[in-house]
TrEMBL record:
PANTHER family, sorted: ATP-DEPENDENT RNA HELICASE RHLE-RELATED, CRISPR-ASSOCIATED NUCLEASE_HELICASE CAS3-RELATED
NCBIfam families documented for this protein: cas3_core, cas3_HD
Pfam families the UniProt entry points to: Cas3-like_C_2, DEAD
Superkingdom of the organism of origin: Bacteria
Family, similarity comment: Belongs to the DEAD box helicase family. In the N-terminal section; belongs to the CRISPR-associated nuclease Cas3-HD family.
Domain Helicase ATP-binding: 231-423
Name of the protein in question: CRISPR-associated endonuclease/helicase Cas3
Gene3D superfamilies assigned to the protein according to its UniProt record, in alphabetical order: 1.10.3210.30, P-loop containing nucleotide triphosphate hydrolases
Domain annotation Helicase C-terminal: ranges: 452-596
UniProt key word ATP-binding: yes
InterPro entries (UniProt xref): Cas3-like_dom, CRISPR-assoc_Cas3_HD, CRISPR-assoc_Cas3_HD_sf, DEAD/DEAH_box_helicase_dom, DEAD_box_RNA_helicase, Helicase_ATP-bd, Helicase_C-like, Helicase_Cas3_CRISPR-ass_core
GO cellular component entries: cytosol
PROSITE patterns cross-referenced by the UniProt entry: HD_CAS3, HELICASE_ATP_BIND_1, HELICASE_CTER
Amino acid sequence: MELLAKSNPRTYLNEHINDCLVIFRYLQHNFPAAAKIVSDINFWEVLRLAVIFHDLGKGHVEFYKLLNGEKDHQWDGQRHELFSLPFVDGLQVDEEIKKFLKLAIAAHHKDINTLNDHISAKYGSNPLGSREFEDEFGKVNVPKILSVLATEYQVELSNIKPLSPKNFLYGYKYNKKELKDNERIKLLLLNGALKHCDHLGSAKVDSLSHLTGGELAFVENKVPVLYDHQYESSRSVGNTILISPTGSGKTESALLWLKKQLETTGQGRTFYVLPYTASINAMFERLKAELGEEKVGMLHGKLQEYLYSYLEDNSETVSKTDIREIRDRFKSIHTPLKVVTPFQLLKHLYSLKGFEQGMFEMAGAHLIFDEIHAYSPDTFAHIKFLIKYVIEKLQAKVFIMSATLPSFLQKELESITQFRIIKAAPSLYKTFNRHRVVIRQGNLRDIENIDFIKQRLEAGKKVLVVCNTVKNAQQVFKELSPLAENAVLLHSAFNGEDRSKQEQLLSGDRVNLLVGTQAIEVSLDIDYDEIFTEPAPIDALIQRFGRVNRKREKGICPVYVFNTAQSADKYIYDEEIVSKTVGLLTEISLQNDGIIEEERLQGYVDRVYTDWNEKSKAIFDGAFENISHIQIIPLLVNEKAEEEFYKKFDGIKVLPIALKERYDRYILQEDIIGAERLKVQIRKRKFAQLIKEPHSLFSSSSATSKGKSIPCFIINKVYSPDLGLLFDEQEEWQTEIL
């Protein structure tokens, strides 16, 4: 009997092991920190053994019949990984290493809870608990496997014990809290690395790229004369905080820092962390243009989740065509530099599906955080804990940059570890004076204010208008766009497909009216003549101002701030902070012709944010306390937390009902990214409101060509490619979709 691992294409067991060993060697090169983190064992040798042993249970005769297409097979949905475990007992290695090997191998497809349920269902009827398993193991072609191990991998075994894994796996579940901290990390990294090897090997991925310091030399070529803070960043080794003005080359500083880390401390994934989707897309395109698409990727959570689930459920029967598609999709996930939201990293702390792979990727990683001040107290608490965890447990290095980091937030960060603090030179700040603040009475929507903006457009000015809510942005855009030759609306209520189109329009210099929300505040390389903005906290306004006269080629440009907020703004920003900001800017507007002195920005921020306010501090402390007590248990997926996590942190994605037919076609074609790009992300508060509205929101699902059901929420509101989701306009109720 042959030893088969896959049926289509027909792949022998040793072929699959060798495919996985190719990935193993790339991981060894690309993640050297793993062996330093797990220093009490030879991590790479243990992983090599895990790769060799993980699928030996496929030597079962009934599994062979299944893959060979024999209809009379009696495999009956057994788990091949369980039949791999007795072979580990035959190794001449330390018992502790055997334990970790067996756990990592057992859980390389399903988590321990699922395996325990499986054992109870398949083998639990026999009160002895092991007889049926022993009988089944007797159908494994042990002599053939031993021959392959000896000849192909120079591994000799003795004293194989075909005992049921029931007690071993149940013991892990019920004693999981007794795991020591270093044991948890060991299992996380070992299982995560094994899953990477298995998934990528199954997808026939034959190479994994890495980033070198030399590939980042383009930064110095583009910026032949570095600012002082850029030079200091290029020399800094380890955790660093940079504070410098908008438009002063913070991104280049971060890349110069990264170049130094790669040259000094070695390989590791890089995660470029940004708060808004628009800024993520813009940064992705910017870095991809310099480094190439094989080096830079964006984390598509649903694609990654789908690929992992698909391979776990169908790894033996995946077709040649599927393998090609999966290989190409995995390449987009496994780039050495990823542009992400913090939530795509935070989810691993909650043990959501794929968390072991995620933790492995953060071993020795380089994390770059841009504008870390932009998050809520709850999210900032989680980010602080993430930074603490990856520095202390995973030997990661962190670079944090901001134009406006309140001192009390900086103190929170410095309580984690020692950071090197780099600040732009005072002489540089003087050359960055470029804005004159003008306080306009009333709110943005007042007729006289809208008329004034129209006059500025008619005078030929490139105008940026920033609103605090999507609804206001949509209404303002409808009023102003007829007067603009090229107008763009940018906010969070577009789906991914249309948002990308809007962002592409911004890449040139033709747009003379941009109306947006907070989505324009971070990492968008745009430059306007004037800004009209609703009142917001000082740090948010400074970011908005940074989109005007960015290159300092226009002298001193006016930045207009309205002194009256819309009633809905109180749900977005703290009213006291906004009131303090307007008061401060009014004071500035009456002095020195209203010119904003960049070197005083930190002082302005600290005047508004003297410290945490009582409510925000309570939220922050509560969130940090809660997550500090979280226990990350390897091999146990927290399925209950998944939906709650996405609702809490990453918003909820909904599908406009008018796009359901297109969505179904994408899902049928297994194009998960295409399908996800049709969805709109909405806030948790908005989702809760919609649930209470009759006929506004309902659950649905779509089936892939392979019969896998993909659930989604359908929203029965009008969607416009030009305006986005219109929450006040109901689509005609379509009962046939239910």
